[in-house]
Write a structure and sequence with these properties.
- By secondary structure, this protein is α/β, with parallel strands linked by helices.
- The chain has a 7-stranded mixed sheet with strand order 1-3-2-4-5-6-7, with helices on both faces.
- Helix 5 links the parallel strand 6 and strand 7.
- Helix 3 crosses helix 4.
- The radius of gyration is 16 Å and the shape is globular.
C-alpha cells in the first residue's frame, strides 16, 4: 500500500488499483503506462473528497500480470487492505480499479474493509466469481469503443452480482475507449462522483441515472 493522502483521523478510505497484463512476472513499476493512466483519476477523486476525512492510497503490485490462478494483483490488494486495517482500524473503503485493477477490486470485495467497488473498463471474463460481493456496492463504467476488455462481459458480471451484492449497476460511456482518453473529463468526473457517493450516500448524489441499476439494458451516457 502506497499512501497518497493520510488525514489525522480518517473516516473512510479509497484504494486505487491500476491495470496490467494477463500474464507477466516482470516487476510492476509506478512509471509504467498502466499505473500512470490512473494519476488523473486519482487526482479527480482526491479533489472530490473532504481532505480531512478520507485516506487515499494505491495498491503496489509485485508483478505486472494476473497470471492465471495465481491472481497476483488480487492477492496484493488483499494484503494492502490488511495493511490499511492495521494502520487505521476498520474503515469503510472503496476500491477504484481500472482494467485488471477492476478485476482485482472485484476479487477483493469480500474483505471486511470493503464497502464498494468502482470499476473502470474492468476485465471481468465469463465466470468471474461474484459471491464475495455480498453486502457490497458494485458499479462499473465501460466505454462502448473498448477493444481490450468487453463491455458485454462486464454487463453479464454486473447482472450476476445483483443476486448477491447490496447494489450492482453499470453505465456505458458513449465513445469511451479502454485507455479512458476519449471523453476523459467525463470518465474522471463520474468516477470521482461515484466514489464520493458510495462513501457518503446521504450527502453526495449518485451521478448515474436510476436505469443503471435497473433490469433493462444499461444506459449509454
Amino acid at each position: 500500500m502506497l499512501l497518497q493522502h493520510r488525514p489525522t483521523r480518517p473516516r473512510a478510505a479509497v484504494l486505487v488499483l491500476h491495470g496490467g497484463q494477463a500474464t507477466s512476472h516482470r516487476p510492476a513499476r509506478p512509471w509504467q503506462l498502466a499505473a500512470l493512466r490512473m494519476n488523473p483519476v486519482a487526482r479527480a477523486v482526491s479533489a472530490a473528497l473532504p481532505p480531512e476525512d478520507v485516506l487515499i492510497a494505491r495498491v503496489r503490485y509485485r508483478v505486472r500480470g494476473w497470471n492465471d490462478d495465481r491472481a497476483d494483483p488480487a492477492r496484493d490488494t488483499l494484503r494492502a487492505l490488511d495493511d490499511l486495517a492495521e494502520l487505521t482500524g476498520p474503515l469503510p473503503t472503496v476500491l477504484l480499479g481500472h482494467s485488471m485493477g477492476g478485476r482485482a477490486a472485484l476479487r477483493a470485495a469480500g474483505h471486511p474493509q470493503v464497502h464498494g467497488v468502482v470499476a473502470l473498463a474492468p476485465w471481468w471474463p465469463p465466470g468471474e466469481p461474484v459471491d464475495q460481493t455480498a453486502g457490497r456496492h458494485i458499479v462499473a463504467l465501460h466505454g462502448d469503443h473498448d477493444h481490450v476488455t468487453s463491455p458485454t462481459e462486464t454487463a453479464d458480471c454486473v447482472r450476476r452480482a445483483r443476486g448477491t451484492a447490496a447494489q450492482a449497476g453499470m453505465a456505458v460511456i458513449g465513445g469511451g475507449n479502454h485507455a479512458m482518453l476519449r471523453r476523459h473529463a467525463f470518465w474522471h468526473r463520474t468516477a470521482a462522483a461515484l466514489v464520493a457517493h458510495l462513501l457518503d450516500p446521504g450527502g453526495t448524489p449518485d451521478p448515474l441515472p436510476e436505469e443503471c441499476y435497473g433490469t433493462g439494458d444499461f444506459p449509454v451516457l
